[in-house]
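Subject: Sanity check before I submit

Could someone independently write out the structure tokens for this chain? I want to compare against mine line by line before I put it in a report. The sequence has 188 residues.
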Amino acid sequence: MHLTDAFAPVGHHKLIFGGPVGAGKTTAIGAASDIPPLRTEAPILGGPGQSRPLTGAVLDYGAMTLGDGCTLHLYGTPGRERFDFMWELLAEDALALILLIDNSRPDALDQLHFHLGAFSRFIRDTALSVGITHCDLGGGLTLDDYQAELERAGFGCVPVFVVDPRCRRDVCLLIEAALSVLDPVARA
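---
Independent answer below. Compare away.
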């Protein structure tokens, strides 16, 4: 991955991936990581009709080596709200949030608003990019719908993309978009 010339990281840096259960955080970190990712998944204890046998329980971790030799650490937050205590811990000293939203969910905009609220202070101090996943599975929302919601919530100039979390190129696009809006002087 090549970062824009405006961002020159030194040493080690950290990004977090957030979003609801099933949005693709674990998959995205696995796709982008240059090392075998660490996954802390646990069985889902839910009612009938669970479409997934496992969910992220504590965190996911991967790492990328950037063009200048620096390491970008990738942390995935657990999607279940009962693990929200981990969100703030993982966000500490991170450069940006990569927010993944599952477009096939009927409450996709509610999930967007929930996570914007949960990470509001962090986002305002750092950067954000939004990846819309599972567009192939249905859902009538468009990128314009998400951008309009972000603007209504006071997050106007946020990069939003349709992504396949299995595709390294798509995940790297989200990462580069978030990093490109950082002020390199403020982060030095």
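---
OP: Matches mine. For the report I'm noting this point. The radius of gyration is 16 Å.
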